[in-house]
Specification:
Number of strands: 5
Distance between the termini: 24 Å
CATH topology: Ribosomal Protein S5, domain 2
Strand content: 15-25%
Number of domains: 1
Structural class: alpha+beta
CATH class: Alpha Beta
Order of helices and strands: HEEEEHEHHH
Radius of gyration: 16 Å
Strand order of the largest sheet: 1-2-5-3-4
Length: 197
């Protein structure tokens, strides 16, 4: 999982939307987190069974930039009726029932608890291609997108395996879902398949 290199109309439209929502698009950075399928292994990772996951080409795109104050502003193209979700960096521990922003808040909480310094606010626009509750790891894709965004914006240098474990802690301890590590591991370590010439 890495900063996306997508070009063309889709990126242009997302940049325009970011500017519409947050005022302009100066200094914005682009990120992508894939979804995940299991060829085998549904619910066996936390029971010690065999797994065979793979990342897929649809996932969650994020456009983000740091702010000069402590405000955090989030917007999802998938839930436009929710508008801009705004809160202060010092007030991230409170959850909103059923709200996608909990995954972003959870990653902030877990990274800070692990000793990483997130010292200002940021703006994040999210656009997800994964249907909710489709079994393609939309939540893991979102939380790891948030983790990589925070890592890059604040220069945290979080080891990827630690980011995977913090994603699991976010779901287990902040969201309250008893998930395993499979989805996060597959997403963060996925490599593109390049057929032999």
């Amino acid at each position: 999982m890495s900063t996306i290199v997508e070009t063309g109309k889709a990126r242009s439209l997302l940049t325009e939307k970011f500017a519409e929502v947050f005022g302009d698009s100066e200094g914005v950075e682009y990120f992508f987190s894939p979804g995940r399928i299991n060829l085998i292994g549904e619910h066996t990772d936390y029971n010690g069974g065999y797994v065979f996951p793979a990342a897929i080409t649809i996932g969650t795109t994020g456009l983000a930039r740091k702010r000069g104050d402590s405000r955090i502003k989030l917007f999802s193209q998938n839930f436009p009726d929710s508008g801009v979700i705004e809160f202060d960096l010092m007030d991230v521990s409170g959850k909103t029932d059923g709200c996608w922003s909990n995954y972003v808040k959870g990653m902030i909480v877990m990274l800070r608890a692990a000793g990483y310094n997130i010292d200002s606010g940021f703006e994040l626009l999210v656009s997800g291609e994964i249907p909710t509750a489709s079994g393609l790891s939309s939540s893991a894709s979102l939380e790891l997108l948030a983790g990589v965004v925070l890592d890059e914006l604040f220069g945290l240098n979080v080891p990827r395996l630690e980011l995977v474990k913090l994603g699991q802690k976010t779901e287990n301890e902040f969201i309250g879902v008893n998930s395993g590590i499979l989805d996060k591991f597959a997403i963060i370590y996925a490599q593109p398949y390049l057929p032999a010439p």
